[in-house]
Amino acid sequence: MPKGVSFHKLADHPNELNWAENGIAVAELKGKKICIGRFKDQFFAFAFKCPHAGGILADGYIDALGNVVCPLHRYKYSLENGRNTSGEGYYLKHWPVELREEGVFVGMDEGGFWNIFS
Questions:
Q1: Domain boundaries in the chain?
Q2: At residue 117, what are phi and psi to the nearest 5 degrees?
C-alpha cells in the first residue's frame, strides 16, 4: 500500500455499483461523488468532473485505449495515471482501487481527503 494512503470501503461487491452501459459508475465516498471505471477487468477511481470545464465524466465514455473521454469537449484522460492523453495538459485526479474479499476499496490520501475533490 502506498505511504500516506488509506483505503475506504465503497461496496461489498462490484456488482453493487450502479454501472452504466459506458462502463462507468457514480459512487459516493465520504459524501463526495466519484466515478468508478471498468476497463479490461480492472477498476479505476477518478474525479466526477473534468478538470477542464467541469463536464460530468460519468456521461462520457471509456475508449478502446483505456481513457475516459469527457462528454463536453472530448478531452481524454488515462484511467491508469490521470494524464491528459489528448494533449491539452490537464490532469485528472484518480485513486487506486483494490478488490478484496470483503469488498471494493478506494485509496485516498490520509492528509488531504477533502482537498482531493476540488
A1: 5-117
A2: -100, -5
Percent residues over pLDDT 90 in the chain: 83
Indicate the helix (H) or strand (E) that contains 103: strand 103-109
Fold of 5-117: Rieske Iron-sulfur Protein (2.102.10)
CA separation, residue 3 to residues 6, 7, 54 (Å): 9, 11, 30
Per-residue cell: 8: 475506504
Rounded to whole angstroms, the Cα distance separating 117 from 20 reads 22
3-state secondary structure of 59: helix
E strands within the chain? Answer: 5-11, 24-29, 32-39, 42-47, 61-62, 67-69, 76-78, 94-95, 97-100, 103-109
Q: Which residue has the higher pLDDT, 117 or 61?
A: 61
